[in-house]
């Protein structure tokens, strides 16, 4: 949906004008100034978004609900509704609160819709409702509030189910994030312990080497090589043990996060796409013989070692396949099924010869032989 704006070409948003307004540091009720009181804290209420200091809130609304003290407002406010503004621009703060309120009611999920178009239409409808609540006229805001109330009353059960599903997903995400942080911390500790153990092993090996060099008559190079092999063996064993422990901890954490979330689609394993078959699944394996990789034949003895038969694109195996196919191709032909076309061809040839004789022509011996040879 294209963005809509109710500002004229030469108009300026009120939020832009109030961004650098000095009155933002003055309480509209008690006129306290942040310049005189640096600890002054301003609070707002989503009912009217009129800013006032925390002292006025405690003084006016501690005993119970009361009307907003800002002139020409008069809305009933409660102390529990006041909170500190997150954004400096109260227009943005108001839009964020409206989006939270609408999102808590229109909380359907994409998997509830049959098509992507239906899901996008639903999102566009929600955005239109939010726009009417934020930037609409008085009548548009009243209609939007009525639509919001009617939808909440008519879909109370589904709204509650989606709210619980969202809370469960958020809880799973928090637990998974916590588990990942714990796993990262364990890996750091394991790496630190491994580094300390490697240093200690290096120190012990160094002392052992010095002792052996001082007390034995062995070759110094052999002693050093043996010490290096021992260090590498210990390091490899230690790393394998650390990897095994990390994998076991990861599996335990993953098993603890397995929670059935209601309303989610079941995950199906992706179907492995088979390679393209140009023959459409037809089995071309010969049924009357088994093709071998090599044949002992005197006619092929010279061809196997001939350099001309080793050129690119030529294959002796392809020659074997073609020869065997031609040799056994006649086994699939049945004479009984081939007799009818033969008789038809012969009769057509005889008819042609008879027509020539009837026309008075003389058929030579060569012509007669060509007529008799139906092939």
Automatic annotation (TrEMBL):
This is RNA polymerase II transcription factor B subunit 3. It is found in: Nucleus. The keyword Zinc-finger applies. Keywords: Coiled coil, Metal-binding, Nucleus, Zinc, Zinc-finger. GO terms for molecular function: cyclin-dependent protein serine/threonine kinase activator activity; zinc ion binding. GO terms for biological process: nucleotide-excision repair; regulation of transcription by RNA polymerase II. CDD domains: RING-HC_TFB3-like (cd16573). GO terms for cellular component: transcription factor TFIIK complex. The keyword Ligase does not apply. Residues 134-212 form a coiled coil. Transmembrane segments: none annotated. Residues 27-70 form the RING-type domain.
């Amino acid at each position: 949906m294209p963005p809509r704006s109710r500002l004229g070409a030469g108009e300026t948003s009120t939020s832009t004008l109030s961004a650098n307004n000095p009155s933002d540091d003055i309480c509209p009720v008690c006129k306290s100034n942040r310049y005189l009181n640096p600890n002054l804290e301003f609070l707002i209420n989503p009912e009217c978004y009129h800013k006032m200091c925390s002292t006025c809130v405690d003084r006016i609304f501690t005993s119970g609900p009361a009307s907003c003290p800002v002139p020409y407002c008069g809305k009933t406010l409660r102390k529990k509704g006041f909170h500190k503004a997150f954004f400096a621009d109260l227009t943005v703060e108001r839009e964020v609160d409206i989006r939270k309120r609408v999102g808590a009611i229109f909380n359907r999920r994409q998997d509830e819709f049959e098509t992507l178009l239906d899901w996008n239409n639903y999102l566009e409808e929600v955005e239109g409702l939010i726009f009417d609540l934020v930037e609409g006229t008085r009548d548009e805001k009243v209609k939007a509030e009525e639509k919001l109330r009617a939808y909440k009353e008519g879909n109370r059960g589904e709204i509650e189910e989606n709210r619980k599903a969202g809370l469960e997903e958020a809880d799973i995400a928090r637990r998974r994030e916590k588990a990942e942080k714990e796993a990262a911390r364990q890996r750091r500790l394991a790496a630190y312990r491994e580094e300390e153990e490697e240093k200690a092993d290096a120190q012990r090996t160094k002392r052992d080497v010095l002792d052996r060099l001082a007390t034995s008559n062995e070759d110094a190079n052999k002693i050093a090589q043996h010490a290096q092999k021992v260090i590498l063996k210990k390091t490899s064993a230690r790393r394998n043990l650390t990897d095994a422990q990390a994998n076991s901890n990861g599996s335990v954490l993953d098993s603890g996060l397995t929670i059935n979330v209601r309303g989610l689609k079941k995950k199906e394993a992706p179907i492995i796409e088979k390679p393209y078959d140009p023959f459409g699944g037809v089995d071309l394996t010969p049924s009357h013989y088994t093709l071998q990789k090599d044949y002992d034949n005197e006619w092929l003895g010279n061809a196997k070692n001939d350099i001309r038969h080793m050129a690119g694109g030529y294959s002796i195996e392809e020659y074997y396949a073609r020869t065997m196919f031609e040799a056994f191709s006649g086994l699939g032909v049945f004479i009984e099924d081939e007799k009818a076309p033969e008789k038809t061809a012969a009769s057509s040839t005889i008819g042609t010869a008879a027509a020539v004789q009837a026309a008075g022509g003389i058929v030579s011996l060569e012509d007669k032989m060509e007529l008799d040879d139906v092939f």
